[in-house]
Amino acid sequence: MKREVFWMYYFPAIIVLGVARATFGESALAGYVLFVPVLMWMFFQRLKNLGYEPLLAGLLVVPIANIWLIAVCLFGPENFARVKKLDRVGNGCIIGGLLGVVLFILLLSRFG
Residue 78: phi, psi to the nearest 5? Predict the structure, then answer.
């Protein structure tokens, strides 16, 4: 699964899960039962595209490793396991994300 396709489906799925949980509370378990296998399949496909073993998707349950895994799946180009370098899009996304976090912290300190 290419990076663009992963982005296109990953964030709407996360938003749907969050809205379902906020709306239905604990009865949103059915949404998790339906979406978690789909998300795991997406991670399997994306890890294959990156050149990693698909079973690394199991790292999603490990607290610090899941941050690394999500970042690699979101920003890594094809064959990232072999190349170990980000392309322009990956670098731009990371820089933009860091600037967004800094801006958010500044806004919180100003208005919070």
Answer: -60, 145
Take residue 69 and report the two structure tokens written for it.
Answer: 């895994």
Cβ atoms 60, 72 nearer than 8 A: no
Q: How far apart are CA 76 and CA 88, in angstroms?
A: 10
Q: Give the Cα separation of 37 and 33 in Å (integer).
A: 7
Residues whose CB is less than 8 angstroms from the CB of residue 70 and which lie 6 or more positions away in sequence, other chains included: 60
d(CA 12, CA 41): 15
**Model confidence over 45-77: pLDDT tens digits?**
999 999 999 999 988 889 899 989 988 988 899
> Could you tell me the maximum CA-CA distance found in the chain, to the nearest angstrom?
45
One-letter amino acid for residue 29 of the chain: L
What does the alpha-carbon distance between residue 45 and residue 47 come to, in Å, rounded to a whole number? 6
For the residues 71-93, what does the mean pLDDT come to?
A: 88
Query: Which residue pairs from 58-63 have beta carbons closer than 8 angstroms and sit at least 24 positions apart in sequence?
Result: none
Query: E strand or H helix at 66, and its extent?
Result: helix 65-75
